[in-house]
Amino acid sequence: DSGREDIRSPGHIFPLLASQGGVLRRAGHTEAAVDLAKLANMLPGGVICEIMNEDGTMARVPDLMKFAELHKLLIITIKDLIEYRKRNETLVVKKAEAMLPSEFGDFNVIGFQSVLDDSDYVALVKGEWEEDEPVLVRVHSECLTGDVFGSYRCDCGPQLHAAMEMVQAEGKGVILYLPQEGRGIGLINKLHAYKLQEKGADTVEANQQLGFKADLRDYGMGAQMLFMLGVRRMRLMTNNPRKIVGVQGHGLEVVERIPLEIQSNPGNIKYMHTKKHKLGHILNI
């Protein structure tokens, strides 16, 4: 026969510690509360609570939208906050610079580092340009097996080398090298995906069987690097329309797509067809 007087109010309150880097490091409510307080120039802390539906289930975004409208409350999602911070904060810093003579041309190699997790990013730069000049650009995701070991499973290494040759011939341009191994799933998971491909899965199915989306890459860091290098408009070397959308979503303009097709081989023909038919790449195969 317990009543309201038997329940202590406000109940249990658990202290939570937000991750350094906020929602850009961990997309959680704790980090969102602290980030919002910081953006408001307030003490970096907050009080968070769970809103429940009438049936006792946890309210999700659609439910919360209705709740906010009913009570005339402002509402923001963690996704909105992540996008805002990416657009308004510098998340990479320039750390080192040197000359890099190579078999594909001579470049200025610039090392950048993420302020969120200390991961390293690289830009190969050649020549100079005016601020509004469309610059030849390649945004290349790291592929150890293809770029270094010459794997026939993909076309990554030949694409990288072809892009370097094209920038060399142009006399100016930028090649970004981003740490997004295996379309963002990491090296070990990529090797697991290789094993699944040996059993019949294609590159998309293998990622999905491992619990990942087909493509987890993000181009926010790369866009900031390009901006820091003075690029505002670009001629992007890519066969992937999604990459164009990803780069333009961070305030840069792609004025032209430059195809970067590589002749397929018996080891990657299925991979190439999967890129065309499941990932939307523009390929003449």
Describe this structure in words.
The protein has helices at residues 29-39, 61-70, 78-88, 144-148, 156-170, 181-184, 187-198, 203-209, 220-228, 241-248, 269-278, and strands at 92-102, 105-114, 120-126, 134-141, 173-178, 233-237, 253-258. The protein is an alpha/beta fold. It folds into two domains: 4-87, DHBP synthase, CATH 3.90.870; 91-180 and 217-278, Rossmann fold. It has a seven-stranded mixed beta sheet, with helices on both faces. The chain is globular and about 80 Å long.
Oligomeric state of the chains present here: single chain
Give me the CATH superfamily of the largest domain. GTP cyclohydrolase II
Question: Could you name the ranges where pLDDT drops below 50 across 5 or more consecutive residues?
Answer: none
Radius of gyration equals 23 Å
- CATH topology name of the largest domain, in short, is Rossmann fold
CATH architecture classification name of the largest domain: 3-Layer(aba) Sandwich
